[in-house]
Amino acid sequence: MFKRTQQTARETKQEAKDVTKSKNGLFASCSFSSLGLDPKLSDQLQERMGFEAPTLVQAQSIPVILSGRDVLVNAATGTGKTIAYLAPIIHHLQAYSPKVDRSHGTFALVIVPTRELCLQVYETLEKLLHRFHWIVPGYVMGGEKKAKEKARLRKGISILIATPGRLLDHLKNTASFEHKNLRWVIFDEADCILEMGYGKETEQIIKLLGSRQHEEGEEDDDDDIVVPKGAQKQTLLLSATLNEKVNHLAKLSLDDPVMIGLDNSKLQQKQLPIESHASPDSDEDEMVIHVNKSANPSSEDYGIPSQLVQKYVKVPCGARLVALLSVLKNLFEREASQKVVVFFSTRDAVDFHHSLLSEFQWPPKSETQEEEAATKQLFLKCKTFRLHGSMEQEDRRSAFANFKAEKQALLLSTDVAARGLDFPKVRCIIQYDCPGEATEYVHRVGRTARIGEKGEALLFLQPVEIDYLKDLKKHGATLAEYPLLKVLDKFPLLGNMPRIKKVISLESHPWVISLQRALEFFTYAEPKMKNLAKNAFVSWVRGYAAHKGELKSIFVVKKLHLGHVAKSFALKEQPSLVGKSHHKETMKRKRDERQKGQHPKKRKKMSGGNSRMYACLSSSSSVHYIQDEVLLMRWAPSLGAAGLATLPRPEDKGFALEVGVGAAMAAQGSSSSVDSFEAAEAKDGAEEEEEEEEEEEARGA
Ligand SMILES: Nc1ncnc2c1ncn2[C@@H]1O[C@H](COP(=O)(O)OP(=O)(O)OP(=O)(O)O)[C@@H](O)[C@H]1O
Question: Which residues form the Helicase ATP-binding domain (predicted)?
């Protein structure tokens, strides 16, 4: 006992040392005012916000941004990039004479990929503007009422934070959106904006802003232009994972940029083929970002906080759910007051695990009812929140705010929480479903170990997926193995279950067996739970088939044992992947939700206006249908020996369809990939409100 206390004390001391060391490497040895910021603003940062010194990236970026140059900033997650770009803008704006007011419209535009990040940047901005009340902050984003946003834009917003779809909508349709004084455009999480499929929107935004921009030296007799003479328009691109994908955006929007945090291995004279949209008069000496893919890459390919402890846990598919619950229980028992985020690949998986963790009790059954009432408790004694793209905006907002405010809580999320979100005191990130590209791994784990704090990250892998570690290593992430068996051994066994001395496989561990049984019992006790499990199973398999590029050879859907996958959703048998009954259930669920007002009038545009069902025969000769003809056309060549046939709508003919696993699954999987889901959701946000707004306008709102 004494030995253990001594060891814990030693570990705590070591952790404290590590944090100090990492903090030493994070902060610059200067003050905010020495960077050239206005004293009132420096004071606000130091005194009111409690930032004693700028971080290194702030110390490097602020003077360059103040000088008016375009900038590309690449710095690790949680190093303070938001302040790095907001502070110089406020410094300039507060000094304008005459003072800026609402009638001058928007001077700075910050474009971010998700709604939560939009709100977060807005909150930071509000704090920074505390002493500059005449500068008006504001935001526009999908999911909000457009009529209200229009009214706010009409009044005037000096610094506007926006998601791309909604911003484009206002640029096109809100005549009162004043931006002729626009001087700054910032793309925060620039690579993500492009990866989420916003490339076209971004190009249009740049074009629309450019066409109405006030060019320097331009003859202009408009008295409303208040940008100081000689002040240059400035564009800033930032991310922890700037890579070659942003070259096109950089080329479109940046003029002779300064690169901050991009080491020489990533910057090369223009050798890479820049995409065909490159302007013919481009500068031949221009720098482009190039990610080093050599056999011996830099360990700093993507900036992962050095104090972050990264681990992986190898779990056979059938034991995944038990392993997840055990790891979580162990974490919260070890340290009650902490926050943990678990990432899943699909929204259905988030919903299922959220319901399960919010209701599942332990121990599962007792001898007498009185005893049961006295001893039963929730398996996890912490508040559990969920966050994903098809939640109602108000629910998203409250989940985000509540998880932020809690001291002890668990958040289950899709990648909607992976970028930029700054939840204080998150101690551990669990990636229960693999993230896909290494960039996403970096951003997910970046929700912990922020601003020099300690943090842990745990990646779940099945034995067949273990090669993913090599992919991460190429980008500088090396993970140690998590001692799962040791953790499982700590849990007390139920009743008189014998403790086996040597456990041969994880699945035969008595704790795993009893917990799995209890979970299955719980899931089957209520039809609602069972349906959630089935939906989660189906979308998980589809999501698995949607891995892209080189990762397809690691995450091979054909290698999955679907019975074991079912077990990981506490199902005793494998449900049909897309049977008629499932299709009907999904339609019914959506109808019910719509009636309850949970899915207000989402309009999905199908190409050609008339959707038809297609069927394709996979190599295993089972039938799979796809509702989106474009998707099938794209995937058809990759189906190999698969036959292809056009069928009437199943609901017309009333035949049941079974899905085949393999190439055809991959085809449907692509439609349920997280990225395209989230992007589609966010884009819908722009359209979704149209009808609502028309209605409101008709009512004279
Ligand atoms: N100079 C500073 N001193 C102390 N804390 C700071 C400082 N600057 C910023 N912070 C805090 O650090 C946290 C991380 O900042 P921020 O969210 O801007 O990081 P980021 O680099 O944008 O991360 P990501 O890449 O994940 O988006 C925030 O809570 C912020 O308030």
Answer: 62-260
The pLDDT tens digits for 510-522 are 999 999 999 999 9
For residue 51, the CA-to-ligand 1 centroid distance in Å is 10
What are the extents of the domains in the chain? 6-215+229-275+285-301, 308-367+375-567, 580-683
**CATH homologous superfamily, domain 308-367+375-567:** P-loop containing nucleotide triphosphate hydrolases (3.40.50.300)
User: CA gyration radius for the chain?
Assistant: 27
Interval 658-663 mean pLDDT: 35
Rounded CA gap, 389 and 351, in Å?
11
3-state secondary structure 124-189: HHHHHHHHCCCCCEEEECCCCCHHHHHHHHHHCCCEEEECHHHHHHHHHHCCCCCCCCCCEEEEEC
* pLDDT tens digit sequence for 579-637: 544 555 666 667 766 665 555 444 443 333 333 333 333 333 232 333 222 222 223 33
Question: What per-residue string of b and e applies to 251-275 under the rule 16 or more CB within 10 Å gives b?
Answer: bbbbeebbbbbbeeebeeebeeebe
Which residue's structure tokens are 């309850």? 596
CA 140 vs. chain centroid, Å, equals 19
Contact 73, 65 (CB under 8 A): no
Question: 81, 86, 118, 426: which to mutate for ligand 1, most atoms within 8 A of CB?
Answer: 81
Domain 6-215+229-275+285-301 and domain 308-367+375-567 have a common topology: yes
CA of 439 to the centre of ligand 1 (A): 19
Q: Which CATH number is 6-215+229-275+285-301 given?
A: 3.40.50.300
- φ, ψ at 159 (rounded to 5°): -125, 115
Q: What is the mean pLDDT of residues 211-228?
A: 53
Cis ω on the peptide bond leading into residue 363 (within 30° of 0)? yes
Flag whether pLDDT at 456 surpasses 80: yes
The string of DSSP letters for 545-561 reads: TT--GGGGGTS-GGG--
